[in-house]
Design goal:
By secondary structure, the protein is α+β, with helices and mostly antiparallel strands. The protein contains 6 helices and 7 strands; from the N terminus they run αααααβαββββββ.
């Protein structure tokens, strides 16, 4: 990466040298061919009407500017070289930020929306979403950890837990023991199953 930047800086420096050299040549040619020493004072007073002298004057400014850029601001030249790349990176970062904001909004909606307590016998009549209500790997891993802990509490100590889930209408929760877990469903008392993808929190 550093070598690439050095190459980019070197190329720009070479370009600046070429521009400055051409500008210097224009200055010399303009002075040599079109300005007589005797008439120099007159030409300086009325240089706006002499296009060749004006071109030479502008070229002199360009030459001095290029030399200053070459000597004083290599870091700015480097940043100019990678401007397009930085712009692409900024756009990508912005997309990632928007995606994170969307995820936070969804997680916030799940956490802040009031949850309705229902009887476990009514779970069988509910319709569950086809997509997982959680989005990140950390959330998924945390849910798996909570469900496994709840399963152990249910099997070993008959300990009830609160299971928060989302159906097609909104957030709901039940208080019960978990009897069994597989890859897609959890089973509670009475053989009633809940898709794990719809569970967003377990209170032990």
């Amino acid at each position: 990466m550093k070598e690439t930047k050095k190459i980019e800086i070197s190329r720009l420096n070479a370009l600046l040298i070429i521009i400055a050299t051409v500008a210097a040549c224009v200055v010399i040619v303009s002075i040599t061919l079109h300005i007589k020493l005797v008439e120099l004072e007159h030409d300086l007073e009325d240089f706006a009407s002499h296009h060749t002298f004006l071109a030479g004057f502008i070229s002199l400014i360009i030459m001095l500017t290029c030399i200053r850029l070459y000597n004083d601001t290599p870091s700015k030249i480097s940043s100019f070289n990678i401007f397009k790349k930085k712009t692409r990176n900024k756009r990508l970062l912005r997309k990632i930020e928007l995606a994170d904001e969307y995820k936070k909004q969804i997680r916030g909606d799940l956490g802040n929306e009031s949850s309705k307590l229902i009887e476990k016998e009514n779970v069988a009549s509910l319709n569950f979403p086809s997509e997982d209500v959680l989005l990140t790997n950390d959330e998924l891993n945390n849910r798996d950890h909570e469900l496994n802990a709840a399963l152990k509490l249910g099997n070993n100590y008959k300990h009830k837990v609160k299971i928060y889930f989302k159906d097609s209408i909104g957030n709901k929760h039940i208080e019960t023991t978990i009897w069994q877990l597989d890859k897609t469903n959890l089973t509670i008392k009475g053989g009633i199953t809940i898709p794990i993808r719809s569970v967003y929190k377990v209170e032990l």
